[in-house]
Amino acid sequence: MQKKLWVLMLFTMVLVLAACTDDSDVDEAAEGDSAADSGGRDLVIGMINEAVSLDPHVSNDIPSAQLRTQIFDTLVEQNVDMEFGEGLATSFEQDGDKWTLNLKEDVTFHNGSEFTAADVEATLDRVMDPSVGSSVAFMFEMINDIEIVNDHEIVLTTDYPFTPLPSHLAHNTAGILSKEVIDEDYQNALDEAGSDVTLEEYYELREEGGEEFEAVSQEIGSHVGAVITEKPDGTGHLKLQERIPGNEIVLEKFEEFHGGEREFNTVTYRVIPENSARLAELETGGIGITDNVDTEAMDRVREHNDTDIIDQDGLSMTYVAFNYEKEPFDDENVRKAISHAIDREQIISGVLNDRGIHAKNHISPSVFAHNADMEEVPYDIELAKEYMADSSVPDGFDTVIWTSDSEQNRDIALIIQESLSELGINVEIEQYEHGAFLEMADQGDHDMFMLQWITVTGDPNYGLYPMFHTDSVGSGNRWNYSNPELDGYLEEGQKTSEEGEREAAYATAQEILMEDLPITPLYYGELGIGVNNTLVEGVELDPVGIVRIENVTFPE
After folding, report:
1. Reported confidence tier of residue 221, pLDDT bands at 50, 70, 90
2. DSSP string, 140-182
3. Which of 50, 224, 298, 392 is the most exposed place for a label (fewest CB within 10 A)?
4. 153-158 and 238-244 beta bridge pairing
5. Of 461, 455, 468, 555, whose CA–CA distance to 517 is shortest?
6. Cβ contacts of residue 91 below 8 Å, gap of 6+?
């Protein structure tokens, strides 16, 4: 049966960030080309973690997504209610395994080139290219053919009718790059590797596959992405001006943007890891927005005359991951013992200041097909001890848990450490810088680690398939977990378009996961950002945790 989905609405999303400058900034700006000269203003945003990469195909972290959302447009847009709207594609038509996309005209890339179907093809080919080694290739690998009908019409063919495709095309890692910068990046990689293969020959080899392509791919892999990292070329309302690693990234307004006028000239994302320092900057006007407020400081921000908290129900699930193939975590009794020994209520009340929801399963209540009939994982130390007694290590063992270097993560890890000591499990906590931590987690060499997964599309396919399907081992499935029965239900959820059938498939999948526990869910996130109301008005936060700035305004 033919199914049509027309995306004809253009959203005006009131997603706002702002900041101010100190007197020295104002004096300096007055001397030359300034925000004031062109009627614009400068925004400064405080971030707890630095963006890993501006290349949409390199990482899948929220700090990077904050910036990439501004630089790149996607084919489909989602508003703060996760509703679809017009992006670079004005409409879709699905007919079985084929999707026809009509593309927006008169759109310009930051480098001045015109947006066409060739840029969509080049972007999708790149994200699935083994040379890139993208951690989000799974989101697009069901696309097996890309046919350019004309400059503004393209047909995507999938391996099977794939219901969640629009939500994947709305993801920040689906931001469209210009073919020009993609070509330049590959040519640079070939040159740096000293390859005698031409760019055209490389594309031909990639299309054919085989041993010759694999050899070239391995040869250039470490060089791919260097150009795009330095000059990410999108069609978004902001373009890269400057990056000072470890300190800040400055984006500037793109004057040829196709989506309307902006009130700002530059947006600076400052890395301020310390919660107290970031809060002080918010209160004194050094920043207009902080992307993270320590839960203990929430009341202080609300009660301050100039600042407030913007709340949002999140799509995240924070968890402890086990190495499913590594002793003793290959023993389900160990995994269940640990799961029942962790006091989630203590974490939520003691660390999160009651800003979290006790997790029942592996996707949050804000995600479609969340299985609300399941019970919460109870804190039961006696039951945990019974599981340990039946395990391969009844007397306990020594282990390590990794986490990124935030104060909140440290405090949660300390609670876990104390809880597991009652089972004879001696836990060493190792904290790492955010980017380094993600890189280590991808290697699959851990004992345990603590991380958060955000079902950014709002669709359970994204929440479960990349984390738990056998084909995702080595990418999102960092714990080396495989269960053929689960795979079947996840595949069924992808292929059927009937809502009830999808809900049933995903409900069963969640039950299987809570039995196997390759990871144990801790809590669902409740989001909150800090805003200085004297500097910015109308700020909104989406359920993913992205603060968008399309329509920022400033108080007079």
Report:
1. very high
2. TTTEEEEEEEETTEEEEEESS--TTHHHHHTSGGGPPPPHHHH
3. 392
4. unpaired
5. 468
6. 6, 7, 8, 101, 102
d(CA 531, CA 355): 18
Q: What angle do CA 528, 533, 538 make, to 5 degrees?
A: 70
Average pLDDT over residues 513-522: 97
Output the DSSP codes for 509-552.
HHHHHHHH-SEEEEEEEEEEEEEETTT-BS----TTS----TT-
Q: One-letter amino acid identity for 129?
A: D
| Phi, psi for residue 323 in degrees, rounded to 5 | -85, 100
As a whole number of angstroms, the distance between CA 135 and CA 467 comes to: 12
The rounded mean pLDDT for the chain is: 90
Sign of CA dihedral 394, 400, 402, 403: positive
> Contact at 8 Å (CB) between 265 and 252?
yes
**Predicted confidence (pLDDT) at residue 553 exceeds the cutoff of 80:** yes
Pick the closest to residue 241 from 250, 232, 228 (CA basis). 250
pLDDT at 40: 57
CB contact at 8 A, 369 and 460: yes
pLDDT cut 70: percent of the chain above it: 93
Encoding tokens for residue 416? Answer: 């876990």
Domain 238-312+527-548: CATH superfamily, name plus number: Periplasmic binding protein-like II (3.40.190.10)
Reduced to 3 states (helix: H, G, I; strand: E, B; else coil), residue 294 is coil
Residue 286 confidence (pLDDT) above 70: yes
Output 270 or 435, whichever has higher pLDDT.
270
Residue 245 CB neighbour total at 10 angstroms: 8
Would you give the DSSP letter of residue 331?
A: S
The CATH architecture to which 314-526 belongs is Roll (3.10)
Asked if 198 contacts 127 with a C-beta cutoff of 8 angstroms, the reply is no
Residue 412 phi/psi, 5-degree rounding, is -65, -40
Rounded CA-CA distance 17/536 in Å is: 7
List, as one string, the DSSP characters of 84-126. EEESSEEEEEEETTEEEEEEPSS-B-TTSPBP-HHHHHHHHHH
d(CA 322, CA 326): 8
Q: How confident is the model at residue 528 (pLDDT cuts 50, 70, 90)?
A: very high
Which residue has 């310390």 as its token pair?
274
Question: Is residue 17 pLDDT above 50, yes or no?
Answer: no
Q: Among positive and negative, which fits the CA dihedral 179, 185, 190, 191? A: positive
| 54-228 placed in CATH 2.40.110.20 | no
Helix (H, G, I), strand (E, B) or coil at 435: helix
Token pair listed for 116: 């066409």
- In contact, 85 and 7? CB cutoff 8 Å: yes
Do the bridges between strand 289-290 and strand 89-95 make them parallel or antiparallel, or are there none, so unpaired? unpaired
How do the domains of the chain map onto residue ranges? Answer: 54-228, 238-312+527-548, 314-526
Q: Are 190 and 202 in contact (CB under 8 A)?
A: yes
CB atoms under 10 Å from CB of 69, counted, come to 23
